[in-house]
Specification:
This protein is α/β, with parallel strands linked by helices. The protein is 30% helix and 23% strand. The protein has a seven-stranded parallel beta sheet with strand order 8-9-7-10-11-6-12, sandwiched between helices. The two termini are 50 Å apart. The relative contact order is 0.09.
């Protein structure tokens, strides 16, 4: 028995700690088990990751107790979490903590023995059978099955237009997997974990599916995790953390809507599930399928350059036509109508026609609230949040002005707080205002609104979608929640109220986001027999992202966008690390950020370092934020450099520094 156990602790300290093992525990200690250890002057949970003959410090303390009877981490999970540590600037303990269910991080052994109610009632879902595949689908499936047969790691980019039958390929590939006695993980964006997505898998595979997502209570999450660990299910469907499912015989990983930003974790460890999935597929010698109608630029670039195998689905199921897209130039509307209208004449007529035909419509705007800012016409004051550099948004139902970043709330004033005039006016629009305008124009319409205000209560998301599915609601107004993965055959019209909202965000990915959203939301139309149309209102009708989305032409968008990425040296030509320095005093923030940028440049003069510059929203929750961008072709080189520089950097009291590798927004 080696003398010392190596323990990783979920703290931002990049090292392993050595502890001795008391004689009485020596038979029970094993790699992959959790242990209670003394740390500074408290007891914390640690993870046994190895053994060694000698310790790196004098006076080694001994472990207090062993928590688990059986290891909760196998060798593969230890390798995967170690890879996350190396690539995403976190400690090994922090990476491990991300891979186990939250409820047992504090050292509990079990949770929720009382829960008898299963997460999903299988009997609620009618059983479904495999569909006959089209020629394109069969060819795609054949490529994947070859890799499954050979047990080889391979990444496939399944680029299929909306409604081209990507899900059926996933289902039949999984079926083949199960026949070989192996397991599959399917990741879907948090946003599309609707009953509709779950139904597709449960109706095909019954009780063999575990579902993991953020709306589950810690006890239910733990039970799903345990079910997977005990080998009671062979398929896991879930949001990004499902990539850590404790499977022992993994044969296939699928990431649906791989371009989605929700695959990136916001806090430490800030991993991207797509990259972690790739690493896990390598460790298991199994294929990975990335599916999307609008692949991320990075993935498409890799497929074009042979790193991934590109599979295209160019036709919709049953040869249904893609919806016709009309672009409405709102500058012309402005010139021909007396006041700024929310709906163009074209969209109003289309809504009227859709309702008269007894069909359904989706109206999309990526902004919640009633009006997006309140402004005094006399002195020009715009009401802002006192803790963030953002305007307050008026919410009609709550009769309040709310900050969408920190939830700061005030009553809307009747007179201007600055010049005391009564020229206070409401401008801009959000989903609430759009809903009230539709009510005003179409009194007989049955409308539901879907945004983070109306879906805050548990179960409300499903309730709204069910009402829409059953035809009790004939118009759905919403934010990006409604743009993804929903399949309603009676929807013949999709209206995009303002396509420019996402274009004007100061971020190198704003064109890509706009193209993706317009293509995805447009894909909700014409999924039934009746075809469909999409009407896009915009003040920038000539922008290539909007024109390419209108023609459903990803290739054209890619060609335009990749040129500017290359010129400006952004991904996929380079890897990025964003370092955010924040403090409550702006001068201190700016000064510290400048000193840190200088230290990084000094440590490696060849490294490309940009900034510091104020973040696009400089102040959030009372903290000023400055960003430094580090660019290099090799992610590991940048992380290694920062591991050298940051521990030596003297950070003033009250200053916080966050490192985000491969950030998805600025």
């Amino acid at each position: 028995m080696p003398k010392f156990v190596e323990v990783a602790i979920a703290l931002p300290i990049d090292r392993i700690f050595h502890y001795s093992v008391p004689e009485i525990l020596s038979n029970d200690i094993a790699v992959g088990k959790r242990v209670f250890v003394p740390f500074q002057n408290r007891t914390v949970v640690g993870y046994a990751v190895g053994f060694s003959e000698k310790a790196d410090v004098e006076g080694v303390k001994s472990i207090i107790s062993i928590i688990d009877k059986e290891p909760i981490l196998n060798e593969e999970m230890l390798k995967l979490t170690r890879w996350i540590k190396d690539n995403y600037f976190c400690s090994w303990g922090e990476a491990i903590a991300a891979a186990i269910p939250g409820g047992i991080k504090k050292g509990k052994v079990s949770l929720g023995e009382r829960i008898k109610e299963p997460n999903i009632k299988v009997e609620d879902f009618p059983r479904s059978k495999a569909h006959v595949l089209t020629d394109e689908q069969s060819k795609a499936l054949k490529s994947v099955l070859e890799a499954i047969d050979k047990k080889e790691y391979r990444t496939f980019l399944l680029y299929g237009i909306t409604s081209s039958g990507k899900t059926e390929i996933y289902l039949q590939a999984i079926e083949e997997m199960l026949a070989k006695g192996r397991q599959a993980i399917v990741l879907v964006p948090e946003i599309s974990l609707t009953p509709q997505t779950i139904e597709r898998f449960v109706s095909r595979f019954g009780a063999n599916v575990a579902v993991v997502h953020s709306a589950l209570t810690p006890a239910k999450r733990f039970l799903e995790w345990k079910k997977i660990k005990d080998g009671k299910v062979q398929i896991v469907v879930g949001a990004r953390s499902a990539i850590f499912s404790p499977m022992t015989n993994l044969g296939l990983i699928i990431i649906d809507e791989e371009h989605e930003t929700t695959y990136k974790q916001d806090d430490v460890p800030r991993y991207h599930a797509r990259d972690v999935a790739e690493e896990r597929a390598k460790l298991n010698n199994c294929p990975l399928i990335l599916g999307s109608a609008t692949p991320s630029l990075e993935s498409y670039y890799r497929a074009k350059h042979g790193e991934y195998k590109l599979i295209k689905l160019t036709k919709r199921i049953d040869e249904r036509l893609l919806p016709k897209v009309k672009i409405v130039d709102m500058r012309m509307e402005l010139a021909t109508r007396k006041r700024i209208e929310i709906f163009s004449k074209v969209l109003l007529d289309a809504i009227d026609k859709t309702l008269k035909n007894g069909k359904q419509a989706i109206i999309f705007l990526n902004r919640r609230g009633f009006s997006t800012f309140v402004n005094c016409k006399r002195c020009g004051l715009v009401l802002k949040c006192k803790r963030c550099d953002t305007v307050l948004v008026y919410h009609f139902e709550k009769k309040k002005l709310i900050c969408h970043y920190c939830d700061y709330t005030i009553q809307p004033p009747d007179i201007c707080p600055k010049c005391r005039s009564s020229y206070i006016r409401y401008f801009g629009l959000g989903t609430e205002k759009v809903e009230s305008e539709i009510n005003h124009n179409f009194a007989h319409a049955r409308i539901a609104r879907m945004d983070s205000d109306t879906t805050a209560k548990s179960g409300s998301h499903d309730r709204i979608l069910n009402e829409f599915k059953n035809g009790r609601v004939n118009m759905l107004v919403g934010t990006q929640m409604i743009a993804k993965g929903l399949d309603f055959p009676a929807v013949t019209l999709v209206g995009v109220v303002s396509a420019d909202v996402t274009l004007n965000i100061p971020d190198f990915r704003s064109s890509e986001r706009t193209f993706n959203l317009l293509t995805q939301v447009g894909g909700r139309a014409g999924r039934g027999e009746d075809g469909g149309e999409v009407i896009v209102q915009t003040y920038a009708p000539d922008h290539y992202a909007i024109l390419a989305a209108a023609k459903h032409d990803y290739e054209k968008f890619y060609q335009e966008e990749i040129v500017s990425r290359k010129e400006l040296l952004f991904p996929p030509f380079i890897n990025l690390v964003k370092i955010t320095v924040r403090a409550r005093n702006e001068e201190l923030t700016s000064k510290t950020a400048s000193e840190l940028a200088l230290a990084i440049r000094g440590a490696d003069p060849a490294m490309k370092v940009a900034g510091p510059a104020p973040a696009p929203i400089t102040r959030i929750r009372g903290y000023f934020r400055y960003n430094i961008l580090v660019k290099d072709k090799d992610r590991l080189v940048m992380v290694a450099l920062l591991r050298k520089v940051l521990p030596l950097f003297k950070r003033p009291h009250g200053v916080l520094i966050a490192v985000d590798v491969d950030p998805i927004s600025m």
